[in-house]
Amino acid sequence: MRRVPMAGPLALLAVVGCGPSERSSVGDPWTTLEGWDEYGESAVNVVGFVEHQELEGGMWLIREPTGTTWSPVNLPEAFQIEGAGVVADVRLRPDLLSMGMNGELVEVLRIRHGAVPDAPNAAEGESPAAVAQGPVPGGRAFGEWRVVGHVMPGVSAMSTSRAASWTGRSLEYGPRSARSPNGDCVEASFTERVVSTDGLLSGQYGVPVETVPPMAEFDEVTVVDVLCEGASWGAVGQTVMVLDERRAMTPWDGVFFELRRVR
Question: Which of 163, 191, 194, 237 is most buried (most C-beta within 10 Å)?
Answer without folding.
Answer: 237
